Amino acid sequence: MNSSKNTAVWTTLVALGILFLGATACHKDHNSSAPPTLYDSLGGTAKVNDPAHPGTMVEKGYLGVRSVVDSAIFIIAADNQINGYFKVLLGEVTSGNTSGLQKLSANLSNFVATATGAKDYPYSGLSMTNAHNPTTNPRMTGKVDSQDFDEFVKDVAASATKNGVPANLITSLGKLLYSVESQVVQR
């Protein structure tokens, strides 16, 4: 394995390790007085009907995360400042192919759910660095800069507001997103 592949593997493992440790450290122990995780505040592990998959149950926290993510994807798609990064995805959707959209929704939902404290929805996608680098992820059509990252966070906040997430939780979600800014911003 060449050194760039080794670096990519290590980067992915470190990123996943940090997410796992963060999620584990924040996990609510019902026998202690630990504060609830962000995931708990978004609905936690209580099971509810999944409106996207009738007849199946989903954790209320995950449903909340997925609702914000899916809404954010559409807000981003309409945002001319940053939608150019997603030309491949937008082209697919325009032609009727939603498989990439479904994968993005699942990956981003699992990433956010894991990072906020979920245990049952592991993230197994690319590291944030590789996911946002067109060299390692040909679905990205450019490297992200700081202004566009800020616009992304603004769009996610708008989605969270649209989905009725309280302001204090939106602030926590923003902090979570900014914790990976250095991995996402590459120019």
Note down, in words, how this protein is organized.
With 187 residues, the protein is mainly alpha-helical. The protein has a single domain (3-184), classed as Globins (Globin-like), CATH 1.10.490. Helix content is 58%, strand content 3%. The protein has helices at 3-26, 38-41, 60-77, 87-94, 99-116, 128-131, 146-162, 167-178, 181-184; strands at 47-49, 57-59. Strands 1-2 form a two-stranded antiparallel sheet. A hairpin with a 7-residue loop joins strand 1 (47-49) and strand 2 (57-59). The longest helix is centred in the first third of the chain and has 24 residues, at 3-26. It is globular and about 45 Å long. 27% of the residues are buried. The model is unreliable at 1-31 (pLDDT under 50).
Any key phrases for this structure?
Globin-like, two-stranded antiparallel sheet, 58% helix, disordered N terminus
Total count of domains: 1
Q: What is the CATH architecture term?
A: Orthogonal Bundle
What Rg, in angstroms, do the CA atoms define?
17 Å
What is the CA-CA span between the terminal residues?
27 Å
- Poorly predicted runs of 5 or more residues: 1-31
CATH superfamily: Globins
What is the makeup of the main sheet?
2 strands, antiparallel
What series of H and E elements makes up the topology? HHEEHHHHHHH
The amount of beta strand, in percent, is under 5%
CATH fold-type name: Globin-like
Class derived from helix and strand content: mainly alpha
Concise synopsis of the structure shown:
Helices cover 58% and strands 3% of the residues.
